[in-house]
Amino acid sequence: MGGNAPRRHAGLWQLAVDTLDGNWEHDHTVPSRTLYPHQWSWDSAFIAIGWAHVRPDRAWRELTSLFRAQWLDGRVPHIVFNPAVSGGAYFPGPEFWASATVDGTPPVATSGLVQPPVHALAAWHAYRIAPSADGLAALRRLYPRLVAQQHYLATRRDVGGAGLASIVHPWESGLDNSPAWDAPLAAVPTEAAVMRAYRRRDIVHAAAAHRPTDLDYARFVAIVTAYRAAGYRDDGLAGRHPFLVECPLFNAAMGAAEHALAGIAGEIGADPGPHRESAARITAAVVDRLYDPTTGTFHPRDLRTGQLTPARTVLGLAPLILPDLPTRQVEAVLVEAASARFGLAARMTRPLPSHDRTAADFEPLRYWRGPSWMNINWLVRQGLLAHGHTRLAAGLRASMIELVGAGCHEYFHPDTGAGLGSPTFGWTAALLLDVLAD
């Protein structure tokens, strides 16, 4: 058994290691062998954290392979396609995205979207888990690419002009099917022909009742089609793109990345000052643009309407990962987290849900509309630790460990803790190793 895992959790530790080993694919880890057979961006970031505890070399190979697919403009695509996998194994596949037709793309096929920029946070966390000369060399190689990723988001994606990045698709949020996107999605026009033009692969491997509806999936495809038709360009998004939202989690991750980059810069002999300044600006913008004093939590802002979206989801807790989040907002978010909506406590009786469990549209089985996810729990726990709330962090840790007693599932029932989705999921295994070792 590696790391500092307690011996009483030896079985869970080995389960997690075996899951990662089983999902390893020559230079990266697939999220799952069935539903997600390629490399996913923020999955690889979380997975690198787990590898750092048992195979640090794989942690750096994981991140290095992902950033080899970075576009010239700095974006890190949310899917990197494995050419050895059949094109029909996943939809939308490489033919749909057609990245090879776009200037400034890598030789490997990718998507044209991004995901939350948790990569600098993961790289810094992985290095502190297993500091070494090889790790330091990897940080030096990754640093300019991480900086380019941040620059892309801070410039080309600042559609609102207030210092926050806009997501152009719900898939970019990572919380693909969250109720947070219902209002912006409702305005996306969808022709019936779009729904007949493709075959969904996700409901071959997972129950349809657990996945996005056909109508929502058609809207997802319509948004990508619009972005692809414009060559994935970000200039002029405000005037033509059907979905533009400033997301609390995405932008909190961008701010946390600047704090991590400051740490990396200090370690490799670069100047951490600009990263600290950027972090402060992002935190101020997140509070100014996305905090609602009436609800006491954070909400996405729909740039099409200028309004905050009304759903109270776990996205509202994500800004806790900003270490410089003002005390007023920290305290308000903790009240939200401890309420009946989410149930965070030093002794948790149910898992942390992804959506307000008191809401009429709470769905305990459907993807991101209620179920509990290991990566979101991990981020919230990091935020609790950053602000000194160790008892709540311990309660969440215990809940996370209890969840995986059902196996390293993709996500979990928010009341019973039963495993849902893929039964051998990469980031669940990786982040279990991290909390066991802590």
Task: Please characterize this protein's 3D structure.
It is built from 18 helices and eleven strands. It is mainly α and 438 residues long. The protein has a single domain, classed as Glycosyltransferase, CATH 1.50.10. The strands form five sheets. A three-stranded antiparallel β-sheet has the order 5-8-9. The two termini are 14 Å apart. The mean pLDDT is 93.
Summarize the structure.
By secondary structure, the protein is mainly α.
H/E series, N to C?
A: HEEEHHEHHHHHHHHHEHHEEEEHHHEEH
Distance between the termini: 14 Å
Count up the domains.
1
* Highest CATH level, the class: Mainly Alpha
CATH hierarchy: architecture: Alpha/alpha barrel
Q: Quick one: overall form?
A: globular
The structural class is mainly alpha
Question: Mean pLDDT across all residues, rounded?
Answer: 93
Q: Within the CATH hierarchy, at the fold level, what is the topology?
A: Glycosyltransferase
Specify the helix fraction band: 40-55%
What is the number of beta strands?
A: 11
Radius of gyration (Å): 20 Å
| Main β-sheet, spatial strand arrangement | 5-8-9
Uncertain stretches: none
Strand content: 5-15%
Number of helices: 18
Q: How is the biggest beta sheet arranged?
A: 3 strands, antiparallel
Family: Belongs to the glycosyl hydrolase 63 family.
Protein name: Mannosylglycerate hydrolase MGH1-like glycoside hydrolase domain-containing protein
GO molecular function, one term: Glc3Man9GlcNAc2 oligosaccharide glucosidase activity
GO biological process, one term: oligosaccharide metabolic process
